[in-house]
Structures are given as structure tokens and as C-alpha cells.
Amino acid sequence: MKKITRYQNKKILVLGLARSGFSAAKLLHDLGALVTVNDGKPFEENREAQDLLALGIKVITGSHPIELLDEDFSLMVKNPGIPYSHPLIQGAMEKGLPIITEIELAYEISEAPIIGITGTNGKTTTTTMIEQILNQGMTKSRAYLSGNIGYPASSVARDVMADDCLVMELSSFQLMGTIDFKPHIGVITNLYEAHLDYHGSREEYVAAKWRMQNHMTSEDWLVLNWNQAEVRALAEKTKAQVIPFSTEEKVNGAYALKGQIYYQEEAIMLVDELGAPGSHNVENALAAIAVAKLNGISTTVIRTVLQHFTGVPHRTQYIGQINQVKFYNDSKATNILATKMALSGFEPEKVILLAGGLDRGNSFETLVPSLKNLKAVIVFGETKNRLAQAAKEAGVSIIEETLDVTSALPLAYQLSQAEDVILLSPANASWDQYTNFEVRGEAFIQAYDALKAQVEKE
């Protein structure tokens, strides 16, 4: 990593631990900063805080005393999930204290160029596609996954060499906390309305995403979804070289036309050869192909990887089948659009949808067209009543209510027959019943394993 000295003997407050805060605190400590960590979890339950204290880092846990700001901090590094309405953050802004997230630190120390992927949906899948293609095609270097995909960027960036690259999934929460950060190649998969409880408005949400390209130059590339008029308009405001991708028209980039995928004039593969189902995964693949071609990866490698790519955990992930009934885990579908995209990849008459979760006050009217002709819908969680109403409006003949994912799966199997698809795609966040979408997805997988074992015994 780059040996930077700007943080030596500087007092820095790290607000919130989890993986990113823990990584940032350790890095800043190693760079010579005088680090104070503040986390809401009590010390006796806080393994990260205990480990940091053992390193000689000051930790304050169990509450967020506003008096902390009386110290002469020169910087705050916040956990991305903590909203800017938090009293400590509000106080820091009033004092004019710079506030960043740990991806800014990763950018400062990384010797390798960054490929940054953001967007409302498809970030994780596109990021994973890119990493797999690059690592299959590069012979003397390596692509490293990092960022919102679960690997703290400020930790991964320590190990990369100049010939490597950081493939970084970026959330709007992370991007809001950047100052000089920029990728060498940026990708915006799509832009829809999301996280308004955090950002306050669609305009602020889009601005956070677009912040990724603020410092990009004519020597950088920005891969954009040309299907969206909003994105095409934004493209006129960047200094980066724009590489479009589209499933609707021929563009000077990656596109799908009459069942064939192209990059510029070169045929890459057939749409039907993609291993991951759904029209949304065609868009994800186009974005990944554009990045791969910008990195000089051969068409043979691209085709081979995408043919064998069947999805990432919890994102339209194929789990297996029982008596020719196929099971898919799309727990990462935490909004309506993600569920609509998942449903687009299957024949509706064969789909039994499992949906429900945290009530954020969303209307499910926009989901109704995607529910039409489904074989059955099973609902659970705080939003079960409104989802059931949406299914009724769509004319779904079988609508069942159950407690949670674990009870929904065997009920769905009872309603199924050979060639059907049982799809967990909740259209809601998980926090009413599960700590995160991963835990919800694992509950689905465990329920599948239990059911399969039971059926095999019979």
C-alpha cells in the first residue's frame, strides 16, 4: 500500500464499527493516527472494540456522547449505515469537521486502480461477474473484490499491487462520504428510487451515486445504462469517456440485439448462453463485458465465465430441485424493482413467489403487473397484508399467509408440481424478522435442505 503520512498524530474519530469501522480504525492506527472509536454496542458484547482496545486504540462504547466532539478531532470516519441525522454527525458538520467513509481511505492507500460499481440494483452480481472474468483472463495480476460486497475496501487495499485492480461495489451511503475518491473505471448499473428514508429525496440519492465520477477525467471510463433517459442526460455532465450498454438499441459499447450480445461490432455470445436467468442479468452481463473489454480480456474468456455464472448468493441464486421443482434464493431483493426483475426471468404460470418483510410504507401497486399469472403467492412479515392485496388485484388465484421464510418454503412445495419454480424474492428489507438479507436467505436454504432430506427419506 502507499505509505501516506497525512494522518500521523492526527486525532480521528471513527463512528460505528462493524466490518468497515473496524478496518478503518486499524488502518488509521497503523498510519500513525490517534484514533478514538465510538460504537453503540456495549463493550462486553463488542468483540471488535475489545480487539481494538488490545491494540492500544481508545474505544468508547454503549452510547454516543455528544461531548466527544469537544476533543480536537481533525476527521470523522463514519460507518456508511449511520444516517447523517445522527447527533454526532450533525454536531461534526456544525463544527466543519470533514466526514468520510472508509472507501476514501482505501482510495488514498491503494496502489492499484479501482473499478467502481454502483447503481440501484445489480451491483453485487455485476461486481462478481467482473471479478470472475478479470481473474480468469489476467495472467500476471489479480482482481480483488472489495467494498459493499462484504470485504472492507480499506482492508483489501492494503494488499493490492500496482498491476492488480480493486473491483469495488459502492453504495450510495459509502459514496456520500467521499472527497477525492475516484475509480479508473466506473459502472452505474441503473438508477431507480431507493433509500429515501436515508437520503430524503430521489435527487439526493441520485446525486450520491453520481458522486462516484466527480473526479474522473478523460483518461477514465464510465460504463452507463443507456436504457435510461435519466442516465443518458447525466452522461453529458461527466469528463470521463462514456461507454454505454443497452438491451434496447445498438450502441458504441455493449448491447443485446435479436438474441445476440455484442461489444461494438464483435459478437460475444448468445443471450440464451448466459448462465444467470432474467433480463436484469443481461444488463449486468453487458456492463461486465464492457469492463472486461476495457481491460483487454478475450471474448473466449468472457463467454466461458458468463456461461458458467449462475448468480451470487441471495441474488436469484439457484439452490437446487426436489422432484423437478426448482428453488431460487433472491433474498437480496429488498425492493419492488428487484423482485420485478427476478420475476421477469421465469414463466409466470410456473412461479410460486415468497415475499414480505419490513414495512417502510411502500405501496405495492407497481408490483401488481409482475404478479399477474403467477401460480401462487405466499406472504409473510410486516407487509404480508398489503402484498396479499396486490396479489389479489393481480388475479392470483392462490394466496397464502405464513409466519416466515422457514414455514413458507414447505407450504410452497405442497402447492407445486414438476417444472415449477419456488422463488424467494421478498420485495422488502428483512429487518422485521432477520438481521439482514443474508440471514433471511440462509433460512431459505436451510429450509430447502431440511425439506429435501425429508422427501428423500419418504
Explain this structure.
The chain has 458 residues and is an alpha/beta fold. The chain has 3 domains: 90 residues, Rossmann fold, CATH 3.40.50; 206 residues, UDP-N-acetylmuramoyl-L-alanine:D-glutamate ligase, CATH 3.40.1190; 141 residues, Protein-Tyrosine Phosphatase, Chain A (Alpha-Beta Complex). Helix content is 35%, strand content 20%. The chain is built from 17 helices and 20 strands. Strands 7-8-6-9-10-11-12-13-14 form a 9-stranded mixed sheet, sandwiched between helices. Helix 14 links the parallel strand 17 and strand 18. The mean pLDDT is 95. Its EC number is 6.3.2.9. Cell wall formation. Catalyzes the addition of glutamate to the nucleotide precursor UDP-N-acetylmuramoyl-L-alanine (UMA). It holds the Pfam family Mur_ligase_C. This is UDP-N-acetylmuramoylalanine--D-glutamate ligase. It is found in: Cytoplasm.
Summarize the entry for a quick read.
With 458 residues, the protein is of the alpha/beta class.
Radius of gyration: 23 Å
CATH class of the largest domain: Alpha Beta
- Runs in which pLDDT lies below 50 for 5 or more consecutive residues are none
CATH architectural arrangement of the largest domain: 3-Layer(aba) Sandwich
* Category by helix and strand content: alpha/beta
Total strands: 20
Largest sheet: 9 strands, mixed
Give the spatial strand order of the biggest sheet: 7-8-6-9-10-11-12-13-14
Strand residues, percent? 15-25%
* CATH structural fold name of the largest domain: UDP-N-acetylmuramoyl-L-alanine:D-glutamate ligase
Number of helices: 17
User: What is the averaged pLDDT score?
Assistant: 95
What is the distance, rounded to the nearest whole angstrom, between the alpha carbons of the first and last residues? Answer: 57 Å
CATH superfamily of the largest domain: Mur-like, catalytic domain
Total number of distinct structural domains: 3
* Share of helix, binned: 25-40%
GO molecular function, one term: UDP-N-acetylmuramoylalanine-D-glutamate ligase activity
Domain Mur ligase central: 117-292
Domain Mur ligase C-terminal: 314-427
Catalytic activity: UDP-N-acetyl-alpha-D-muramoyl-L-alanine + D-glutamate + ATP = UDP-N-acetyl-alpha-D-muramoyl-L-alanyl-D-glutamate + ADP + phosphate + H(+)
